[in-house]
Specification:
The chain is of the alpha+beta class. The chain is built from nine helices and eleven strands. The chain folds into two domains: 3-89, 2-Layer Sandwich (Phosphorylase Kinase, domain 1), CATH 3.30.200.20; 98-283, Aminoglycoside phosphotransferase (APH), C-terminal lobe (Aminoglycoside 3'-phosphotransferase, Chain: A, domain 2, Alpha-Beta Complex), CATH 3.90.1200.10. The strands form four sheets. Strands 1-2-3-5-4 form a five-stranded antiparallel beta sheet, sandwiched between helices. It has a two-stranded antiparallel ribbon with strand order 6-7. A two-stranded antiparallel sheet has the order 8-11.
Length: 286
């Protein structure tokens, strides 16, 4: 069924628009539907199966279950003849204030402190942007991150761009990565997974909101790999977060490795304009 039929059959809407005005929002097309059951936010993508949106819905639901930071409610997902679609709660999201940044830091830390499974991974594989993200349940965080994050992205770079030099440049970091955790006990935390400034805002009430997750259970510091890439997070955010989860020694070394995962992913998605940033970061660990 198409997305308008889904609004009728899955959400019991009797009045739906005759047509939708789609716009390009990031890597998806988005639209808003006014119905007799309320206003819904719609996403579609013509190059992916509904597994991508099912995984996003599962990630949103997991965040909801922590009762911490606000996310849009996922209502339905599916696949028509031409596209995958996702139907979400429509929220009026505004830019942050200092107070909502503080609240976001506090709520994110509370989410990271919520009791989680004993292993690292997730209930399903998902995507980071449009790139597959593998999440097999794994006992050891170092093994999980090296094998299913860095090595996986390096393999994609080799396959897509025939770039074998980058793996050689990354070898010192891969070899040193276990040393960054000496004396550190890592517990799994639920991560948003793709928390950059464009995936967060606030409601008119001041309540912070995050969306478009690439959720999994991992080291809480891994969240900062992308938080620190593009800016948009203030001192109020960091102070509130660190009041609940203090920064531990070696944070910057570990976060550099976590950032490399996201820069590699940008290389995979957007091309070799991100190659120099990957090389520069790898050179820090030589």
């Amino acid at each position: 069924m198409d997305i308008l039929e889904a609004l009728k059959e899955k959400l019991d809407c009797e009045e739906v628009p005759e047509r939708l005005d789609w716009s390009l929002g990031g890597l998806n097309q988005t639209a808003v539907a006014q119905t007799d059951k309320g206003i819904f936010f719609l996403k579609r993508h013509q190059e992916h199966s509904d597994d991508m949106y099912e995984a996003e819905a599962i990630g949103l639901q997991k965040i909801i279950e922590t009762k911490t930071v606000r996310v849009p409610i996922p209502y339905a997902f599916g696949l028509s003849e031409e596209e995958a679609y996702l139907i979400l709660e429509r929220l009026d999201i505004e830019g942050h204030t200092a107070e909502s940044q503080r609240a976001l830091g506090e709520k994110l830390a509370e989410m990271h402190l919520t009791p989680a499974p004993r292993q690292f991974g997730f209930d399903c594989d998902n995507t980071i942007g449009t790139t597959p993200q593998k999440n097999p349940w794994t006992d050891n965080w170092v093994d999980f991150f090296i094998n299913h994050r860095l090595n996986f992205q390096l393999q994609l770079v080799e396959e897509l761009y025939r770039d074998t030099e980058l793996r050689k440049k990354a070898e010192p970091l891969l070899n040193r990565f276990p040393d960054f955790f000496e004396g550190l006990h890592v517990k799994p935390s639920l991560l948003h997974g793709d928390l950059w400034g464009g995936n967060t805002g606030k409601l008119s009430s001041g309540e912070p909101v995050v969306y478009d997750p690439a959720a999994y259970y991992g080291h809480h510091e891994a969240e900062f790999g992308i938080i620190e890439m593009f800016g948009g997070f203030t001192r109020e955010f960091y102070r509130a977060y660190e009041a609940l989860i203090p920064r531990q020694e070696g944070f910057q070394e570990r976060v550099g490795a976590y950032r490399l995962y996201h820069i590699l992913n940008h290389y995979v998605i957007f091309g070799d304009s991100y190659r120099s940033a990957c090389l520069s970061l790898c050179n820090r660990y030589h």
